[in-house]
């Protein structure tokens, strides 16, 4: 939710909101996403773009498609794409909507446990761990910010040690300005994004999903403690 209590996706502060349903998100359709809007014209435009730019409403045709009118008629009026979600994917997402409150409650429970057990460890900072932030968040990831230099190990070494114990970790994310596509367009100089760089140097995501058992959560905590102490 927003700080004022409004739900994300209500578009009270924007024209459109975008959601990802990637497999590790709070709700998944295996892949894909959704866009919400309160603007009927934007909604119509989105519906056309998701289906190859095709318009099927005869009242909106630029001209008659051919000499024979019929229910099959349609016009490609824009360069759209195949962004249609399959019925199977949609069914998976709808089924998860019914479980969303329970899944979020479990995510908050795991996050609170991580916060309590990891928050006082030296050389670790827990981004966005304030209670107000946790209460508003969908808790997609659980992030650690680790001072690897102070620990005397590199991040790849730390990830390898954890993997050897059966714990997968990841880095979310490489700063956009480091990616070739954006770097070549920004044309900046080293040091232009110091906050992003500082965060990136210490970022590490640890296992965090609602089906984690209490034993798996504690096992992860113990491994992190062994790593940093």
Structural class: alpha+beta
Please identify the top-level CATH class of the largest domain: Alpha Beta
Anisotropy-based shape: elongated
Report how far the terminal alpha carbons are from each other: 36 Å
Q: What portion of residues belong to β-strands?
A: 5-15%
Domain tally: 2
Name some characteristics of this structure.
229 residues, alpha+beta, Aspartate Aminotransferase, domain 1, three-stranded antiparallel sheet, two-stranded antiparallel ribbon, 9 helices, 7 strands, elongated
Summarize the structure.
The chain has 229 residues and is an alpha+beta fold.
Describe the protein in words.
With 229 residues, this protein is an alpha+beta fold. It has two domains: 16-97, no CATH class; 100-228, Aspartate Aminotransferase, domain 1, CATH 3.90.1150. The protein has nine helices and seven strands. The strands form three sheets. Strands 5-6-7 form a three-stranded antiparallel β-sheet. It has a two-stranded antiparallel sheet with strand order 1-2. The protein has a two-stranded antiparallel ribbon with strand order 3-4. It is elongated, with a radius of gyration of 23 Å. The two termini are 36 Å apart.
